[in-house]
Design a protein that fits this description.
The chain is of the alpha+beta class. The protein has helices at about 10-30, 30-35, 45-55, 75-85, 90-105, 110-120, 230-260, 275-300, 305-335, 345-355, 360-370, and strands at about 125-130, 145-150, 150-165, 170-175, 180-185, 195, 205-215, 265, 270. Helix content is about 50%, strand content about 15%. About 50% of the residues are buried.
Length: about 375
């Protein structure tokens, strides 16, 4: 395997992006606002979405010829990490982390020109309806069908747990054709399409069941089978999600250490006790482990062989690290950490839901083993 050299040093662009993202999210989407949004029917404010688009975040990784800024996953990962710190609600991951990599990876130039400018401008919220059933996250379990009908296709099937499906203007449906899996763009409101929100653990990240009954669609992305491009696009989504998880884990560490310095028992800060020190130290190790594998994954997306190893590694490590850090955060806070009023439960719920979003750690370790030939 060829040696891969990547730099982890922040650049002028990534530093500016991080500072801008942290300021914007702190001002427009502080935790108090997140709590208000998660109690609304949509779980998000489209005005905030429009502001994100105006900042250039939605189109950050979209090529300039299609209305974007032309950056890559390295720059985009900074935004996701900062959003993870703030358990940011809304369709940013569904659109930018999931749908855009699928379009970039599969669509032909005409399809990109038709879809990406509207997404970059914040006019189109998109998502991907890929996985089905409860057996595991493998694409081999897709049972939704696409049958030719004249110049078009007819889609039949049910897609549970579609991320932000209730907000989406565009749903990219993975369906099985007689030649293999393909991805079909379906607009909201299409005849035969039903989208129903479902109850979820994490109220800051909504999901929906998408039912397709005789839904007519035009040509799939790339006008043919998805082949290896779809798993790779989902790998990019997993790597970006790992960056978000690393950001959430980092915030759990910050909350824990801040509390350990100010909470006193027996006349001294609880952070002075060896047991609490050990917990915080172990949390730091977990956070740095998650961050390092996530950073590596987003920096090697252009190296297929290395990325096939880096993406599932990042997904499994970041998922387990975030869940562990969120649980330790509650333990260090003691009784108050279990209350609705405290923010610790928001991070635990996000950590748990994210660890299942694109495959649980066991699934990703199996994918890693396959990539290594084990």
């Amino acid at each position: 395997m060829a040696e891969v050299r990547v730099s982890y040093a922040p650049t002028e662009e990534t530093t500016l992006l991080r500072n801008t993202a942290r300021e914007f999210l702190s001002n427009r989407l502080p935790i108090a606002t997140v709590r208000e949004m998660m109690m609304t029917p949509d779980g998000f404010d489209r005005a905030v979405w429009k502001e994100m688009a105006e900042l250039g975040w939605v189109g950050l990784a979209i090529p300039e010829e299609h209305g974007g800024a032309g950056y890559g996953t390295t720059e985009l990962s900074v935004i996701f990490e900062e959003m993870g710190r703030m358990v940011t609600p809304g369709p940013f991951f569904a659109t930018v982390g999931l749908a855009i990599p699928v379009i970039l990876g599969l669509a032909d130039e005409a399809q990109k020109s038709g879809l990406l400018p509207g997404i970059a401008a914040g006019e189109i919220i998109a998502t991907v309806a890929a996985f089905e059933g409860s057996r595991d996250w493998g694409l081999e379990n897709v049972e939704t069908t696409a049958t030719r009908d004249g110049d078009g296709w007819v889609l039949e099937g049910v897609k549970p747990h579609v991320l932000d499906g209730h907000l989406a203007d565009l749903i990219l449906v993975v369906a099985r054709t007689d030649q293999g899996l393909a991805v079909f763009p379906v607009g909201a409101g299409a005849d035969g399409l039903t989208v129903e929100q479902v109850d979820v653990l994490d109220p800051t990240r909504r999901q929906a069941t998408v039912t397709l009954e005789g839904v007519r669609a035009a040509a799939p992305l790339g006008s043919g089978p998805a082949g290896d491009a779809l798993p790779r696009a989902l790998g990019v989504a997993s790597a970006l999600l790992a960056c978000e998880q690393a950001g959430g884990a980092q915030r759990c560490l910050e909350m824990s250490t801040e509390y350990a310095k100010t909470r006193h028992q027996f006349g001294r800060p609880i952070g002075s006790f060896q047991a609490v020190k050990h917990r915080c130290a172990q949390m730091l190790v977990k956070v740095e482990h998650a961050r390092s594998v996530a950073y590596h994954a987003v920096r090697v997306t252009e190296d297929p062989a290395e990325f096939a190893i880096a993406a599932p590694l990042a997904a499994s490590v970041a998922s387990e690290s975030y869940v562990w850090a969120a649980g330790e955060n509650i333990q260090i806070h003691g009784g108050i950490g279990f209350t609705w009023e405290h923010d610790a439960h928001l991070y635990l719920k996000r950590a748990k839901s994210s660890s299942l979003l694109l495959g649980d750690p066991r699934y990703h370790r199996r994918t890693l083993g396959d990539a290594l030939g084990l």
